[in-house]
Amino acid sequence: MFVTRASWGKSLADEAQLPSEGPALGQAGVVVSESGPERTFGVSHAVPDGDEVVSAMPSGPHLLGPAGLPPGGAIGVLIDDSLGFAIMLECPASLWSVSAEISLDLVAALPSDGSPITARSRLVHAGPQASFALGTVTDAAGRLLATCRQHGRWVTTLPPAAPAATGRPSAAPPAAQAGPGSAAAQRAAPGLAALLAARVGLTEGGAQLELDVAPGVVNPLGNLHGGITFAACDLVAQAAVQAAGAPVQTASMHVAYLRPILAGTTPRFDARVVHRGRVLGVVEVRVTVDGVKPCVIATITTGVPEPDRQDEARGR
Questions:
Q1: Range in 61-65, 219-223, 252-256, 306-310 with the lowest mean pLDDT
Q2: Does position 26 have pLDDT exceeding 80, yes or no?
Q3: What is the homologous superfamily of the domain 5-156+191-313 according to CATH?
Q4: Is 156 exposed, middle or buried (0-12, 13-18, 19+ CB in 10 A)?
Q5: Cβ of 278: how many Cβ atoms within 10 Å?
Q6: Which of 37, 40, 113, 308 could cross-link with 181 by S-S, CB 3.0 to 4.6 Å?
Q7: Looking at residue 285, what DSSP letter applies?
Q8: Distance CA 59, CA 41 (A)
């Protein structure tokens, strides 16, 4: 979604009042944003609700990882947008916010039955250099699935395609809608790897994932979307712990974004299992482009799903 700081609050209010005039409804009755990552996952426009920003996306089999369960990181685009847009409500003039860190703590497995998943976020601090937002993620019944938080960092680089400071958010350029990000691709994808067009393989002591940074997976600044990175980190982590015989359900994630991953590159996500227990696993994921300097470092903790939620997560 491409917006200027000055128009952001008004655009959110417009979208809240006039959702029927926005883009076409996607699965689960949510309004799909006109940009690659959001269209891929069916993430709705973020709208204000009191002091919170609310967004939603559909669950489904397209979110499943190699273990047959949705990795917690599959909601990466949803929480990155919700948290980030909460931060943007207090963005200083002529600045933009980028994710420095995103964390997720799950209390239940994500569903995959097509029901909606909703994120609510609020700004808790806005400083001269950075801001912080907290959020919750709930299922269709309003039950808590996870809590999340983001540390945003102000940058002077603005999206090159920002519209005039009037009206509702405009659609991204057609190029940003290319790649895996379409409703047809979403419905047809047999799992998260296919949805992301990612290549996943096992390595000694872990797993590896490669992802081409095409227009359909970039953010408004033209870099790999932080939510896509978040999802890919957990996807490769699930492959690693499954091969190691450790618990596969995501319990928590912490992702630190050290430098941008540019469009046109092919980052490599290397997952290494650092602990394998009966009820707990820990994976470190390092993302590089040149094979040397890390662009992203993630730590994922996995556990055993609660028995009464395992079948729900599988959509049965």
A1: 306-310
A2: no
A3: Hotdog Thioesterase (3.10.129.10)
A4: exposed
A5: 9
A6: 40
A7: E
A8: 9
Report the distance separating Cα 211 and Cα 56, nearest Å: 25
Q: First-to-last CA distance in the chain?
A: 34
The residue ranges of DSSP E strands in the chain, in sequence order, are 47-49, 52-58, 96-106, 116-126, 130-138, 144-155, 199-203, 206-210, 249-257, 268-276, 280-288, 294-303
Residue 29 is which amino acid?
A: G
Q: Which residues contact 93 (CB under 8 A, 6 or more apart)?
A: 5, 6
Longest CA span, the chain = 55
- CB of 32 within 8 A of CB of 46? no
d(CA 43, CA 118): 10
Count the helix, strand and coil residues of the chain and give each as a percent rounded to the nearest 5.
30, 35, 35
Q: Which pair of tokens denotes residue 278?
A: 């009966």
* Domain spans, the chain: 5-156+191-313
Q: Between the CA of residue 132 and those of 85, 135, 239, 266, what are the distances in Å?
A: 11, 10, 31, 30
The answer to whether 71 and 192 are in contact (CB under 8 A) is yes
Stretch 231-257: mean pLDDT = 97
Instruction: Give counts: helices (H), strands (E), the chain.
Output: 7, 12
Query: Tell me: the pLDDT tens digits for 169-207?
Result: 333 322 233 334 455 555 566 899 999 999 999 999 999
